[in-house]
Design goal:
This protein has 15 helices and two strands. By secondary structure, the protein is an all-alpha fold.
């Protein structure tokens, strides 16, 4: 079940990775959205099918470097034209785009210090620690120490990329703070703002548009190649290989089957990308869905690591309950019109010819309602908490069902699969429980003939020694 849901998550992510760059290519070329997705899907499917993991690793390194350098070049050039980092920061501050220390504890506020920290923490757990794509990279090196070193290197690179991407958003806002291209109709989706910025402000520099397109292709191809290869390996290992027919195949035939699966993932990614394009803001869509799906999966893994008493039936029950709740929230949110978040105020004051345009949910000035003005429900909880809620439901339901099905005994699960602290605490609690159970087993009272001096025997609830007591004291107690 976890493998199946992981594939669903991976497929949606691949679809997003195809659709998002297609918007950039549509902006700077004459290709249609579907045509650009089909071309990128065909290219990546070809080389992961022919080259396998080796092709994925080599191309990932080159593509990541090209992506980083290209986006950095665009940000630096536009930032210099605006007057430097200080001016960009000041403009973003005046527009209300800087909000680092919002400590509102309400779960209905979209972004606060607590919600973003929570999302970031579990994002790293799910995208690095419990991700098939990351695991294949770590497993490709020779030693555990090398893999741990690569992990820190990867996290440092990830932080640099995210900081640069967020700053590119601030640069785009500072550039169009007085004349929003979306409201004026120059672009049709907010996701096109960076490609439009390149064409609008940097087209006079020879080759800059081609460099940006190369960066876009690098981003999508590096992600799709890794994800497609991971999906194919997961299908083979978890679903096909255990079957009698496939288990008897030779290595050469098995490799051919995996290559065919890689080709199939490319086709599925194009179809899902076309679907995702009709749902709303791409960032909100992908994070709402993936965080909801990742919660139950992470809950199963963390329950296996941190809760030694949870058995397979209990974990399955917790996973199903968490997944159903997460999907109910996500689907309900989109059906209620929550596919895209409310927009901040957008200005048209600096446009040469002011345009009054209404594009879907956007007008020239949009002021989102505060939490106090909205009717809140479970659908309105910030997407940043989706993973945390999914993990909590999985672990809680798993523990409760364990009370019915019976817990694992210490030693039933291999120690190397458990957190050492959790295992020690569970062994201590198990021994204490067993000792108390033995000590509270009552023995029948025996009596002798006589009056008040008649005595019986009872078992002390603390020790196993038999303590004689007068019967009338026993009766009074």
């Amino acid at each position: 079940m976890s493998s199946f849901v992981s594939l669903l998550n991976l497929g949606l992510y691949m679809g997003m990775c195809l659709y998002a760059p297609s918007l950039a290519l549509v902006t700077v070329t004459n290709l249609s959205t579907f045509a650009s997705m089909a071309i990128m899907g065909a290219v990546v499917t070809f080389y992961i099918t022919i080259g396998g993991v080796r092709a994925v690793v080599y191309t990932d390194v080159l593509q990541t470097l090209l992506m980083f350098v290209s986006v950095l070049a665009v940000v630096v050039l536009v930032c210099v034209d605006l007057g430097g980092v200080g001016e960009v920061w000041a403009t973003a501050g005046r527009g209300g785009r800087l909000e680092f220390f919002n400590q509102d504890l309400s779960p209905y506020v979209r972004h606060t210090l607590w919600s973003t920290f929570c999302m970031g923490f579990f994002l790293v757990i799910t995208s690095v620690g419990l991700c098939q794509t990351s695991y294949q990279r770590f497993a490709a090196v020779s030693t555990l120490k090398t893999a741990q070193g690569l992990l820190w290197f990867f996290l440092a690179g990830l932080w640099c990329l995210w900081i640069m991407f967020f700053f590119s958003g601030l640069v785009a806002y500072a550039t169009y703070s007085t004349c929003d291209p979306l409201t004026s109709g120059k672009i049709t989706k907010a996701d096109q703002i960076i490609p439009f910025l390149v064409i609008d402000k940097l087209s006079h520099i020879p080759g800059i548009s081609g460099l940006f397109v190369a960066a876009v292709y690098s981003a999508v191809l590096s992600t799709l190649s890794s994800s497609g290869n991971s999906a194919a390996c997961t299908i083979w290992e978890d679903f096909l290989k255990p079957l009698p027919f496939f288990s008897g195949l030779s290595n050469k035939t098995a490799t051919f089957v995996v290559k065919m699966l890689s080709s199939l993932t490319g086709v599925v990614a194009v179809a899902l990308g076309h679907l995702i394009g009709n749902l709303g803001n791409i960032f909100n869509i992908i994070f709402s869905i993936t965080t909801a799906i990742s919660g139950p999966i992470a809950g199963v893994f963390l329950a296996g690591i941190l809760l030694p008493w949870v058995n397979a039936k209990s974990a399955f029950s917790g996973f199903v309950a968490s997944f159903c709740y997460s999907m109910w929230i996500v689907v309900g949110k989109f059906l209620r019109g929550g596919g895209s978040p409310p927009q901040l105020t957008l200005s048209m004051d600096g446009c040469v010819a002011p345009v009054n345009v209404t594009l879907g949910y956007l007008t020239t000035t949009i002021v989102p309602k505060t939490v106090d003005q909205m009717e809140t429900s479970a659908y309105d909880i910030s997407y940043c908490y989706n993973t945390l809620i999914g993990i909590a439901i999985t672990m809680l339901i798993s523990s409760l069902v364990t009370l019915i099905t019976g817990p694992n005994s210490p030693g039933e699960v291999k120690s190397e699969l458990l957190n050492p602290t959790s295992e020690r605490m569970y062994r201590w609690a198990w021994r204490r429980c067993q000792r108390r159970r033995k000590n509270t087993v009552a023995l029948p009272i025996t009596s002798c003939q006589g009056d008040k001096e008649e005595v019986g025997t009872m078992l002390s609830p603390v020790t196993s020694n038999l303590i004689p007591k007068p019967l009338y004291e026993v009766y009074e107690a």
